[in-house]
Amino acid sequence: MYTISEIGKLTELTPRTLRHYEEVGLITPSRRGSNGYRYYSKDVLTKILEIKKYKIMDFSLEEINSFLNFKGSELEEILNTKLNAKLQSIEEEVQRLTKSKNEVETQLFATKNFFKGQPLELNQRRSFVEVIKSEVLEQLKKKRPVNHDDLKYLKREDILFDTAEKREFFEVLKKCLKFANEEGIKLGSTRGTAPALLSLYALGWSDFDPSKFNLSPERFVMTDFDLHIDVEFKNGKKFIDYCRKLTSNLKIGRIEAFKLPIIDIIENVHARVGSDVDYDSINDSDPLILDQFRKGDIDKIFSFCIPSNTLVAKHFDSHYYKDDSANKMMSDYLKSQEIFNFQDLLNIEAIFRPDNLDTKPFMREFIDRYPIAKINGFHYNCLSASINEYLKPNFGVIIYQEDIVHIIQEYTSWEFEKCNLFRKALSFGKITEEQKNDLRQYVTEEVIELLIKESSVTFCKAHSLGAWPKLIKKSAVLKALHKDIYFEEIEKWEKENGYSWGDFGFIQGGVSLLQQ
Q1: Angle of helix 287-294 relative to helix 342-351, nearest 10 degrees?
Q2: What is the DSSP letter of 186?
Q3: How far is residue 76's CA from residue 61's CA, in Å, rounded to a whole number?
Q4: Which of 217 and 361 is assigned the larger pLDDT?
Q5: DSSP 3-state assignment of 165?
Q6: Measured at the alpha carbon of residue 147, what is the angle toward residues 143 and 148, in degrees to the nearest 5?
Q7: What is the pTM of this model?
Q8: Beta-bridge mates of residue 187
Q9: What is the four-CA torsion angle of 478, 480, 481, 484, rounded to 10 degrees?
Q10: Region 145-170: what's the mean pLDDT?
Q11: What pLDDT does 383 receive?
Q12: Rounded alpha-carbon distances, angstroms, from residue 128 to 168, 173, 466
């Protein structure tokens, strides 16, 4: 007879393992001494060695227990079946790993060729796109859980990476962001169509998650990859110059950064208060924010208040800005209607653009229509029920360029690029008779006339939702919570820098503002 210690030495198994075998019914001590010690016979030792042999073959204890009940040919048959199944599983895993290895090698080779400036074959291009998308997904996972809709959205963004020139642009994007982080330069939001890109959100270029909204990432491709972004005023010039330097030789794409005073002013208020304000803890539609707009009190609220001394007001040379009448008109417009939520505010800002009233007097009809639509509802009789349902967040009216694209796409099922080209032609009043004939195959004349009329005054939804809403909210919150400090910091900043607090930069017709 053997003690548990002796069995352990003979089998190279620990007493704990032997006790576990006993607990699951694989072995039983031959007898127990008066002291409670276990004693094992040679037959039990043989059985333990047999169990150990099966364990080395990677069988589970449950499987081993079933083997011990069979002998001879029966056991051989069972073992052959089990081992063949394991062999098949191993072969499949080897095939999977071999395929993965080949894919990684292709991706590695494609990456090396890309950075050497060498052309990529079709399979290499696809592999390189997958590398970029994998990086985007990994970064997105750090921000929030990834779902199936995200994968579908990113699939639409494949066109951002399908050529070497486009991929080079995104590599430069990452370098510029890295430079800003290393230099401690505070960036604002991307503008225009760029906020619609989930890739930019994932990589840290934007704090706006576009996946929750009906946006069109494809539109960015049609801007020739021109990305506009705001940057702090104090150290912004370094970032502006760095972006220009890196993008100057790109075959496609350009990064234009603009100094934005309100970024610095908000940081200065935080410094005075002694800590950052937790804006995320305040609901976008909190009365703290909305009540100011309901009273028409837009003074010093970014984007809604455009002071007459801003470079923008001087550039456009509109009488609406010269005497601050634009701000009074916006204030009166806000007071004239019920304001339901923050999205409602963004709709109002997109609709109410008085600088266009001189060149587009028919805008007045669209401006006046919105408050009425919020009370009585609005319905386009010539449009389908599904499109009218889609427009409900706008209280039934067409507001955004993306709305026009959606309407064209629903009726025609055309590719996005063609729909957007038609949208542009409609917006600029340059739609040809040939294009109209294309549309007539799918829609009535009434729908075409509606699209022509509405397109001319629509606004970019990606910009409206993704560019400045956070700054609108922050300036409203600071005004509500720390008005005296906020106003003092605005006055102090303007005296030190010689610009208006409400200034923002842009490029138009060869004119560049706030990039010097």
Answers
A1: 40
A2: P
A3: 18
A4: 217
A5: helix
A6: 145
A7: 0.75
A8: 231
A9: 80
A10: 86
A11: 96
A12: 11, 17, 29
Separation between Cα atoms, residue 512 and residue 367, nearest integer Å: 30
Q: How far is CA 342 from the centre of its chain?
A: 20
Give the C-alpha separation, 138 to 455, whole Å.
Answer: 38
Q: What b/e string do you get for 262-292 counting C-beta neighbours within 10 Å, with b at 16 or more? A: bbbbbebbbeeeeeebeeeebebeeeebbeb
Q: How far apart are CA 181 and CA 140, in angstroms?
A: 18
Tokens of 20: 């576990």
Element (H, E) at 232: strand 226-232
Tokens of 222: 């049609």
Task: Compute the mean pLDDT over every residue in the chain, rounded to the nearest whole number.
Answer: 87
Distance separating alpha carbons of residues 361 and 371, to the nearest angstrom: 18
Round to whole Å and give the CA distance between 153 and 210.
9
Looking at residue 48, its amino acid is I
Mean pLDDT value across residues 158-186: 90
| Cβ within 8 Å of residue 311, ≥6 positions away | 499, 500, 503, 505, 513, 514
Q: What is the dihedral of CA 239, 241, 244, 249, to 10 degrees?
A: -120
Q: Find out whether 288 and 282 touch, Cβ atoms under 8 Å.
A: yes
Give Cβ neighbours of residue 365 (< 8 Å, ≥ 6 apart).
none
Q: What is d(CA 367, CA 459) in angstroms, rounded to the nearest whole number?
A: 13
